[in-house]
Every structure is written in structure tokens, then in C-alpha cells.
Design goal:
EC 5.3.3.2; 3-stranded antiparallel beta sheet; alpha+beta; Nucleoside Triphosphate Pyrophosphohydrolase; metal-binding; disordered N terminus; single chain; cytoplasm; NUDIX_hydrolase-like_dom_sf
Length: 182
Amino acid sequence: MSSSAAATDRETLLVELVDEQGRATGSCPVAAAHTAPGLLHRAFSVLLFDESGRVLLQQRAGVKTRFPLQWANTCCGHPAPGQSVVDAAAVRLIEELGIRTALREVGTFQYQAADAATGRVEFEWDHVLVGRFDGVPPHPDPDEVADFAWVRPESLAEALDASPDLYTPWLGGVLRIATRAD
């Protein structure tokens, strides 16, 4: 499948709309939820740690409709309406990086951010999940992942402060929650 076909297909999938307390209120396509000013919807962000405590980051592929080529947590996405967040995250982790590992939810936060480059927005009730993985992702999908890197959480926190434009706007929140829990 071509990059544009993959991006188009993902944009038509349904996301679960939520209220300010994270309770489901309905659904809409991904593209509609990310059109300014945005609709608050459920999302997940996975951050994997290795044995030495480093975190696995991915650089988002250039074909992404939101925040392309910025560095982000290991993977992220949206559960389908009514789908378990952990189940959706496990599937997405396999799709994006070819990684299978146990995940556990460690917290949630809400954020809203506009992507000046694409005109799209994020307005998400984000579930943060963590897991363990050591080594190199076996099958990074080039339509999803431009690059990946293992970094120390302390170094990442410093880099987020020094060069925020290189990173997705949600990464700081994910890192704070994940490192408190791990």
C-alpha cells in the first residue's frame, strides 16, 4: 500500500469522543477530530523502557498528517470506539515497529496543540502506557516511522526544554507520567 493510501485509510477510522472527564460521548472520523479547533477524543501513547532505563523514541514519518518528522514516544494512536486502550496500543505497537510486549496503563492527561506545518490539531484525552523492550525494533513501518533512538529520560527532558520544536507537543506529558510510574 502506498504512503498516501495508508494515511487516507487511517484518517477515515473512527475515534471515540470524550468529555472533560474522559467519558465516551460519541465518535467521528480521525480527520474530523483533528480539524481545527479539534474535538476531544481518546488516544494512547506508549513509552517502552529497556533494561538500563532508557526510553525508545520514534521520529514520525514525513507522510504523517500531524507533526511529521518530529520525535515522539515509542508509538501512539487511537482506540476504536469501545476498544480497550491496552489492546489498541498493543496492535499499534506491532503495526508501527513490529514489537510485541506487555503494556500497562500508568495515567492519563489532556492536551491540545496545533501543528502549524499541516494546519491539523490534536485535542486528546491521552492514556499513557509503558512496557519493556530491549534491542532494535524488528520491523519499523516506513509509512509510520522515519527513525528511532534509545535515550535516557533525563537527557530527553533536557532536550525537550532546549529544542521543543524537534518533539511532539504531547511527549513531555507522556514522559512525566511514564517516569513517575516506572
